[in-house]
TrEMBL record:
The modification 4-aspartylphosphate is found at D80. This is Two-component response regulator ARR9. Functions as a response regulator involved in His-to-Asp phosphorelay signal transduction system. Phosphorylation of the Asp residue in the receiver domain activates the ability of the protein to promote the transcription of target genes. Type-A response regulators seem to act as negative regulators of the cytokinin signaling. It is found in: Nucleus. CDD domains: REC_typeA_ARR. Signal peptide: none annotated. The lineage of its organism: Eukaryota, Viridiplantae, Streptophyta, Embryophyta, Tracheophyta. GO terms for biological process: cytokinin-activated signaling pathway; phosphorelay signal transduction system. Coiled coil: none annotated. Residues 10-147 form the Response regulatory domain.
Length: 228
């Protein structure tokens, strides 16, 4: 696996031929691209963080690795069609079936000009189909596809940041509304306490007045009158 110095776009190149991998790497670097090269479709899936058939009996099923090898963003995948084990067409399908990587543009290369093969790849979602040997002029066609992917990713990041900001703004509003609901309850409690104090004061005053009038009144017990 080879990796060039950091640049604007990052391309994952897949080819079982070392000679072809070196050629495509050199051409992409001339186009100011960062390049990662792997020798098979399974290695490409491993680099992306997709593991094939490791957690089930179905060898065609993909699962996402908890340790995704996504230290750098992949803006485009260019792959040979004829490879042992997993063909470029199979790799294309796996990428497009993945919710995490389906937006990455995929370009197919082949040394054989087979119209049915080309049509099948384009229908499955390939952006381009190049005949080998690939030329620099061919790779210059890839920049619009890579730019589209980068813009999409930037837009998703902006949406995520805006969502975080909205969440941060909502929290103080919830706290303020809680205070607004508590204040009337405190005021009602104070009013009730004041009313209870007033009622208690009135009762004491009334009791004192009744006590005084009772002491001064004449009380009769079986014809006996007692005065104080």
């Amino acid at each position: 696996m080879g990796m060039a110095a950091e640049s604007q776009f990052h391309v994952l190149a897949v080819d079982d031929s070392l000679c072809d991998r070196k050629l495509i790497e050199r051409l992409l670097q001339k186009s100011s691209c960062q390049v990662t090269t792997v020798e098979s479709g399974s290695k490409a899936l491993e680099f992306l963080g997709l593991r094939q058939g490791l957690q089930s009996n179905d060898p065609n099923e993909l699962s996402t690795s908890p340790h995704i090898h996504q230290e750098v963003e992949v803006n485009l995948i260019i792959t040979d069609y004829c490879m042992p084990g997993m063909t470029g067409y199979d790799l294309l399908k796996k990428v497009k079936e993945s919710s995490a990587f389906k937006n990455i543009p995929v370009v197919i290369m082949s040394s054989e000009n087979v119209p049915a093969r080309i049509s099948r790849c384009l229908e499955e979602g390939a952006e381009e189909f190049f005949l080998k040997p690939v030329r620099l002029a061919d790779l210059n066609k890839l920049k619009p596809h890579m730019m589209k992917t980068k813009l999409k990713n930037q837009k998703l990041e902006e949406i995520e940041e805006a969502s975080k900001d909205e969440t941060a703004l909502v929290e103080p509003e919830i706290k303020d509304s809680t205070k607004i609901e508590i204040l009337p309850l405190q005021q009602d409690l104070q009013l009730v306490q004041q009313e209870e104090q007033t009622l208690c004061t009135n009762n004491k005053r009334k009791s004192m007045e009744e006590g005084i009038s009772t002491d001064r009144a004449l009380t009769r017990f079986d014809g006996i009158t007692t005065t104080v």
